[in-house]
Input
Amino acid sequence: MNIIRMENISKLYKSGQLQVEALKNISFEIKEKEFVSIMGPSGSGKSTLLNIIGCLDHASGGTYELAGTKVDKLNDSKMSQVRNLFIGFVFQSFHLLPRMNALKNVEIPLIYRGMNSKQRRELAEAALEQVGLKDRMNHLPAQLSGGQQQRVAIARAIVGNPSIILADEPTGALDSKSGEMIMELFIELNEKKSMTIVQVTHEEEIAEYGKRIIRLVDGQIVSDSKVEEKNV
Ligand SMILES: Nc1ncnc2c1ncn2[C@@H]1O[C@H](COP(=O)(O)OP(=O)(O)OP(=O)(O)O)[C@@H](O)[C@H]1O
Ligand SMILES: [Mg+2]
Output
């Protein structure tokens, strides 16, 4: 089943006299449990596309269906409800709150769901355990390595059990060893928890952890292909 379906999606940014056509009539589908990498030069529209997929922004035109819901017809508050239920976000620079420890950071999405504190704590601990950081749950972000901070961010992304993980350059700020750990975690979430994963990256080796690569140039899809199985 398609979890993401986009038809003729366009995005026009307007500021004063300037107009940028960041996405030009993009159409594609992503099935449940796929692991897709999006690549392309700087300014090609990768983050714009990810933000539309993640219901952080509306497209200017076209049709977007997320799990059967026509997102382009939703108002902002409905859109954030859909986002909170279906999507977990991971960013290049982690976006953790600096004054909160790992546990509190991971609890944040559950607060928006109106869950009580005991339940929140249980789920946040389980998510931190899943990313191998239960022993660091009382640490502040500054007391963690970059790779550990990104794993806390992933715990926060998965704590609400979303269908889709969206990651914008998740390994961009990490050394290659920590980057590999993040990719292994994504593979585990994809294969064992059946989460659909869509990640943006400019590193070919990172892209190849996915099973399919969509390449953007100048707001258009120029290729969409399966990653060859590697014989290790
Ligand atoms: N808020 C905005 N207002 C105006 N133009 C924007 C805005 N956000 C992005 N753009 C423009 O849209 C185009 C696509 O931007 P986007 O951030 O999606 O690129 P990207 O592929 O993610 O690039 P990078 O690899 O550098 O992150 C760029 O030309 C950019 O300048
Ligand atoms: Mg970007």
Q: What stands out?
A: The longest helix spans residues 176-192. The chain has a mean pLDDT of 95.
